Amino acid sequence: MKHIIVITGASSGFGLMTAHALAQAGHTVYAGMRETAGRNAPRVVEMQQYANDHGVELHAIEMDVASQASVDAAIARIIAEQGHLDVVVHNAGHMSYGPAEAFTPDQFAALYDVNVLSTQRVNRAALPQLRKQGRGLLVWVSSSSTRGGTPPYLSPYFAAKAGMDALAVSYAGELARWGIESSIIVPGAFTQGTNHFAHAGAPADEAVAKAYAEGPTADFGEVAFKGLAALEPDDADPQAVAAAIVTVVDTPFGKRPFRVHVDPSQDGAEIVNGVADRVRAELLRRIGLEDILRPRVLA
Fold first, then answer.
1. What's the rounded Cα separation, in Å, for the pair 263 and 91?
2. Which of 171, 182, 214, 234 has the fewest Cβ atoms within 10 angstroms?
3. What's the whole-number average pLDDT of the chain?
4. Measured between alpha carbons, how far is residue 294 from residues 67, 174, 182, 234, 281 in Å?
5. Pick from 164, 53, 80, 169: nearest CA to 117
């Protein structure tokens, strides 16, 4: 079945890969990104060329997830052009790298804004349409860091992703009776093939960062990154995340998995998430809300 899909943060990385993959799978894809007339103008041209070359429906759309007005305008345009919206892929995110103490509270807030509050802006714009339809799918791109191993120097990112994952779990239950399904994709630490680490934010307090770099933690940065890279198999391919999202989207309504782990390094998140999700399911059964473990068929 062909779906109308919007992806946030689709100018690069998992978002761009997913936009290409979903378009190739026959869906109509709107790749959200900011500064389509500025910094990302070349990407808009590339996307149009890709769509022409492959005969697919792939459209770049201005969507700054830090702005409710921008998000509202993008979702309204999609609905106006297509008449409906089927799938929202929450992919926008940003990473930081460095000692937690050296990041200012404002930096923590900014990272939380991109990784968590952005999803709330998009949901508030898109969910009225999905609830009206009585059918839809939210795909949340989480991270194995929320419950897997936690190496140092990624604290602000880990905290933000944990917040996003918790929000996704809560939304899943609240939307189930509206006929809206949820799937959480959990990528591991892909150190190659994306700009995730290369574009990571640095701490603003240089004096504190220097103290950590010269103190007993001087080796943390190098050892942690090299260790993560060493855990990653040589054949680890971030395209596997895009492929997993395509599989979820193409799975029939009501049969989509609640979580899908794509973690070549096997950092333990799948085990811990498995326990946590079973505990959630058991609690819902005990309090009489077992039905919200699956979306209700309304349309």
1. 17
2. 234
3. 93
4. 32, 11, 9, 37, 10
5. 164
* Average pLDDT over every residue of 117-137: 98
| DSSP structural state of residue 9 | S
**Judging by DSSP bridges, how do beta strands 136-141 and 28-33 pair with one another?**
unpaired
8 Å CB contact between 6 and 88:
yes
- What single letter denotes the amino acid at residue 99? P
Q: pLDDT tens for residues 175-198?
A: 999 999 999 999 987 766 555 565
93-106: average pLDDT? 93
How far is it, in rounded angstroms, from Cα 159 to Cα 45? 35
Element at 137 (helix H, strand E):
strand 136-141
Closest-CA residue to 33 (of 47, 22, 23): 47
Residues with catalytic roles: 157
The predicted pLDDT at position 65 comes to 97
User: What pLDDT is stored for residue 196 in this prediction?
Assistant: 57
CATH hierarchy code of domain 4-293: 3.40.50.720
Residues contacting 288, CB < 8 A, separation 6+? none
Backbone dihedral angles phi then psi of residue 199, each to the nearest 5 degrees? -100, 15
CA within 13 Å, CB half, 210: 3
What CA–CA distance (Å, rounded) separates 130 from 127?
5
3-state class (DSSP) for residue 138: strand
**H helix runs in 25-67, sequence order:** 41-54
Domain residues of the chain, as ranges? 4-293
